[in-house]
């Protein structure tokens, strides 16, 4: 018998979910549940749609979390994030909604998300959300993404 967790998407051809609501996130047991550590996902080519104009919006998302009993399986996260390509939402709603869904389902010790959005109407909008103060002793590096500065 294998100790490999059962996942919905690994090793399979998987179409992109039609919407974030229909996307399924897989969680597997944390291989180091007693260790306090930070896991980071970066999505530098994230897209969603403007809810007013329907035009594409682009962002660099950085998701940092300290796992609890489970970790999110990366292919399911990639499919979930890709499902926003046809989703219309304001930057704030999209960024915070992604973070809240991960927290609600995965129940990490701590999570933060930074949404570094490219300009819409000439104004870049950066959105940040976290669950609270990081646990004592957790190394939390800078997210490493500069605010938008134009071509200069």
TrEMBL record:
<dbReference type="InterPro" id="IPR016856">
    <property type="entry name" value="QueF_type1"/>
</dbReference>
<comment type="similarity">
    <text>Belongs to the GTP cyclohydrolase I family. QueF type 1 subfamily.</text>
</comment>
<keyword id="KW-0671">Queuosine biosynthesis</keyword>
<comment type="pathway">
    <text>tRNA modification; tRNA-queuosine biosynthesis.</text>
</comment>
<dbReference type="InterPro" id="IPR029500">
    <property type="entry name" value="QueF"/>
</dbReference>
<dbReference type="InterPro" id="IPR050084">
    <property type="entry name" value="NADPH_dep_7-cyano-7-deazaG_red"/>
</dbReference>
<protein>
    <recommendedName>
        <fullName>NADPH-dependent 7-cyano-7-deazaguanine reductase</fullName>
        <ecNumber>1.7.1.13</ecNumber>
    </recommendedName>
</protein>
<feature type="binding site">
    <location>
        <begin position="91"/>
        <end position="92"/>
    </location>
    <ligand>
        <name>substrate</name>
    </ligand>
</feature>
<feature type="binding site">
    <location>
        <begin position="72"/>
        <end position="74"/>
    </location>
    <ligand>
        <name>substrate</name>
    </ligand>
</feature>
<dbReference type="InterPro" id="IPR043133">
    <property type="entry name" value="GTP-CH-I_C/QueF"/>
</dbReference>
<comment type="function">
    <text>Catalyzes the NADPH-dependent reduction of 7-cyano-7-deazaguanine (preQ0) to 7-aminomethyl-7-deazaguanine (preQ1).</text>
</comment>
<dbReference type="GO" id="GO:0033739">
    <property type="term" value="F:preQ1 synthase activity"/>
</dbReference>
<keyword id="KW-0521">NADP</keyword>
<dbReference type="GO" id="GO:0005737">
    <property type="term" value="C:cytoplasm"/>
</dbReference>
<keyword id="KW-0560">Oxidoreductase</keyword>
<dbReference type="Pfam" id="PF14489">
    <property type="entry name" value="QueF"/>
</dbReference>
<dbReference type="GO" id="GO:0008616">
    <property type="term" value="P:tRNA queuosine(34) biosynthetic process"/>
</dbReference>
<keyword id="KW-0963">Cytoplasm</keyword>
<feature type="active site" description="Thioimide intermediate">
    <location>
        <position position="50"/>
    </location>
</feature>
<feature type="active site" description="Proton donor">
    <location>
        <position position="57"/>
    </location>
</feature>
């Amino acid at each position: 018998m294998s100790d490999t967790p059962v996942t919905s998407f690994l090793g399979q051809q998987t179409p992109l979910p039609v919407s974030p609501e229909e996307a399924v996130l897989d969680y597997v047991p944390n291989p180091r549940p007693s260790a306090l550590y930070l896991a980071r996902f970066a999505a530098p080519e994230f897209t969603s749609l403007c809810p007013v104009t329907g035009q594409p919006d682009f962002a660099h998302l950085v998701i940092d979390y300290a796992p609890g009993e489970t970790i999110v399986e990366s292919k399911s996260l990639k499919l979930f994030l890709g499902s926003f390509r046809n989703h219309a939402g304001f930057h704030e709603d999209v960024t915070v909604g992604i973070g809240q869904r991960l927290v609600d389902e995965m129940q990490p010790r701590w999570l933060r998300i930074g949404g570094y959005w490219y300009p819409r109407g000439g104004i870049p909008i950066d959105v940040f959300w976290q669950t609270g103060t990081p646990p004592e002793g957790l190394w939390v590096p800078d997210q490493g993404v500069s605010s938008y500065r134009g071509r200069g």
